[in-house]
Amino acid sequence: MRPLGPWTEPVTQNRRGAHVFKASWADTLDLLSRELEHLGADEVILQVDLLEHQLRRDGMPRADAKMGPFPGVRISFQSKHGPLTYATDAHENSYYNPRCLAGWQANVRAIALALEALRAVDRYGVSGRGQQYTGWTAIEATATVSDVAAAALLLDPNEPGRLIGAPTAVITGAFTAAVRRHHPDFGGDGNADMAAVVSKLRNARDLLLTGTKQ
């Protein structure tokens, strides 16, 4: 497991509850492992809304780690069809049913079920060369390096990135918070040239707004 970092996919506005899945987390991991094995997966990375210090050296969460509020997950791995990446934030916590999967776990299950469905295409002999997987090989290229740098500049270092492709209000809110965070009156660097700082933050905001959805 690794920290999620900037969310490079569109943010789902109306998420489904995690209660739509009745399976357990253990069953979900079994399904995911089985589908990854079919793909000859190696170097599997599951990115979730955790911070670096919340992960042990072996990549697993610490006992006291608390998952962040964003339910999106991203799974990347090497496969017999090349590098593949799948990501979704389609499901969120079902707070009225604490016994069901957490939102991030439901999104892991959604990806596992999607892999199972893609593999099923091969049963009919239409895509024997794995063409159904090629649409996900370049998914990480949806955000440019400058997008990621802009998001990192606006975000608090302790907050997972969710600005790329976010609604206008989210980006402008992050810009306002960043200006406040850097201001000397609120703990920022008293020697900083605030005009220059604000100019950089404004440029980052404008860059992200060019690719956002209203």
The helix-and-strand class reads alpha/beta
Distance between the termini: 32 Å
The shape is elongated
Tell how many strands the DSSP assignment holds. Answer: 6
- Which strand order do you get reading across the main beta sheet? 1-3-4-5
Q: Percent helix among the residues?
A: 25-40%
Low-confidence stretches: 138-143
Q: Which secondary structure elements does this structure contain, and how are they paired or packed?
A:
Layout: E1 2-3, E2 16-17, H1 25-38, E3 42-48, E4 73-79, E5 82-88, E6 91-92, H2 103-120, H3 145-154, H4 168-182, H5 194-209
Parallel strand pairs: 1-3, 2-6
Antiparallel strand pairs: 3-4, 4-5
Helix pairs in contact: 1-2, 3-5, 4-5
Descriptive notes:
The longest helix is centred in the middle third of the chain and has 18 residues, at 103-120. This protein has helices spanning 25-38, 103-120, 145-154, 168-182, 194-209, and strands at residues 2-3, 16-17, 42-48, 73-79, 82-88, 91-92. Helices cover 34% and strands 13% of the residues. With 214 residues, it is α/β, with parallel strands linked by helices. The protein has two domains: 2-142, no CATH class; 145-209. It is elongated and about 60 Å long. Helix 1 (25-38) runs parallel beside helix 2 and helix 4 (168-182) runs antiparallel to helix 5.
Summarize the structure.
The chain is of the alpha/beta class and 214 residues long. Helix content is 34%, strand content 13%. Helix 1 (25-38) packs parallel to helix 2 (103-120).
